[in-house]
From TrEMBL:
Reactions accelerated catalytically: L-aspartate + ATP = 4-phospho-L-aspartate + ADP
Annotated keywords: Amino-acid biosynthesis, ATP-binding, Coiled coil, Kinase, Nucleotide-binding, Transferase
InterPro entries named in the record: AceGlu_kinase-like_sf, ACT-like_dom_sf, Asp/Glu/Uridylate_kinase, Asp_kinase, AsparK_Bifunc_asparK/hSer_DH
Keyword Glycoprotein in annotation: no
Gene3D superfamilies per the UniProt record, alphabetical: Acetylglutamate kinase-like, Aspartokinase, catalytic domain
One Pfam family named in its UniProt record: AA_kinase
Protein name: Aspartokinase
Coiled coil (UniProt feature): 385-412
Family that this chain belongs to: Belongs to the aspartokinase family.
């Protein structure tokens, strides 16, 4: 069995959904499970609904209308029969969303976020599944929450691998074509959870692992994995082959084409990962497996925008030692900060991190009780694998460097 994953860019409009039919007809789609993300930027749109539910209830009808109109515009273009079941299915999902917001008693934002934002994935896969069926690609819609089981860390749930593998093997018949969701799962109580932003690749990796898939193909709007993000770098090069280890390194440092959690389960079972273009499905793309580290051998550039850079020192100018660092990291954990780079000297501790849960004000307030803290917002973290000196010089040119760290293979530079 094979696993395909189509992201939001591939289904951002009616033409994108139609193109999935073209891709499947161009390749072999027998014995296949397809993971589909929310359409376009709908995860962001549903996040606005979650925010409004807590903080701006008067704006809820506006945000709900935006997502409703967006999806119905796509459905109206795809389905000539206005009595098709897709209309009632989508309507039922919106009714369920409204019902949840009326009946909910929880004040836990993360719990409510998962229940609301997950609806985007459910709607997207309903539309794709129904459209494939009327396009002579018979398939079965599968609720991923019956398959991937997690703990109750809402918005960043951890997979229960033993229970998940048992559920997937029970639910999935390798001889049937399935359409299912990425990003979402369920805990032991049946509550919807999510696997973290951009987690649909991870969902596909989980299915591939549990099904002992022949391969996982991630379909993107780029030719494959490039050595740099074309949004930020003028010259880019396709990486034809990447080893699992190198791909994990690139993903860890923030390469956006592959989700960091996706690769390890694939490596554990030697399942090849293909990254290909849904615009040019017959092109070779990128192949990730055992083998050469990188083909071609070339520097790889990764940039993370909107980072925070903290410089932390003791109020009494004493040394920052082990117990201080332990205390600081406990606070990072409590406030769910993602740490990307650290460096310490005798009297200070510097760190580059991401605030994915908008808790930086709380963190700074608590840190400031014990330490002197200087915070630089909206900095960029550049990482270069297999760098050359000219690469460093180019990144430092016309930028204020806050921190630079080098190892034999990698340089990381925080710039303001």
């Amino acid at each position: 069995m094979k696993v395909f994953k189509f992201g939001g860019a591939s289904v951002k409009d009616a033409e994108g959904v139609k193109n999935i039919v073209k891709v499947l007809n161009d390749v072999d789609y027998q014995d296949l499970l397809i993971v589909v993300s929310a359409m376009g930027k709908m995860t962001n749109a549903f996040e606005k609904i979650a925010d409004a539910y807590f903080y701006k209830k008067e704006e809820l009808p506006v945000f709900i209308k935006v997502v409703r109109d967006y999806h119905y515009d796509i459905v109206n273009e795809l389905f000539e029969n206005k009595e098709h079941d897709v209309y009632s299915e989508i309507q039922n999902l919106f009714i369920g969303l409204t019902g949840f917001m009326i009946q909910n008693k929880s004040t836990d934002f993360n719990f409510v976020y998962d229940q609301i934002v997950s609806v985007a994935e459910l709607i997207s896969t309903k539309i794709v599944s129904f459209y494939l069926n009327i396009s002579a690609i018979e398939n079965t819609w599968l609720d991923v929450r019956e398959c991937i089981k997690t703990n109750s860390d809402f918005r960043d749930a951890k997979v229960d691998w033993k229970l998940t593998e048992k559920s997937i093997v029970t639910k999935v018949n390798p001889q049937i074509l399935y359409i299912t969701q990425g990003f979402i799962a369920a805990n032991e109580h049946g509550n919807t959870t999510t696997l973290g932003r951009e987690g649909s690749d991870y969902s596909a990796g989980i299915f591939a692992y549990c099904l002992n898939a022949d391969s996982l193909t991630i379909w993107k709007d780029v030719e494959g994995v490039l050595n740099a993000d074309p949004r930020y770098f003028n010259e880019t090069q396709l990486l034809e082959q990447i080893s699992y280890t190198e791909a994990i390194e690139l993903a860890f440092y923030g390469a956006s084409v592959i989700h960091p959690k996706t690769l390890q389960p694939l490596q554990n079972k030697g399942i090849p990962l293909l990254v290909k273009s849904f615009l040019n499905p017959k092109k070779k793309g990128t192949h990730v497996s055992d083998g050469k580290r990188l083909v071609p051998e070339t520097p790889c550039f990764i940039v993370k925008k909107n980072q925070l850079f903290l410089s932390i020192s003791a109020l009494d100018f004493s040394f920052v030692v082990e117990h201080n660092i332990s205390e600081i990291f406990n606070l990072f954990h409590r406030y769910k900060m993602k740490v990307n780079l650290i460096q310490n000297s005798a009297i200070s501790f510097s760190i580059c991190l991401e605030d994915n849960f908008n808790l930086i004000k709380n963190l700074l307030a608590e840190l400031s009780n014990t330490y002197k803290v200087v915070c630089f917002a909206n900095v960029s973290l550049f990482t270069v694998r297999h760098f050359q000196n000219k690469d460093i010089e180019e990144l430092e040119k016309n930028n204020k460097v806050l921190l630079k760290q080098l190892t034999q293979e990698t340089v990381q530079i925080v710039v303001q």
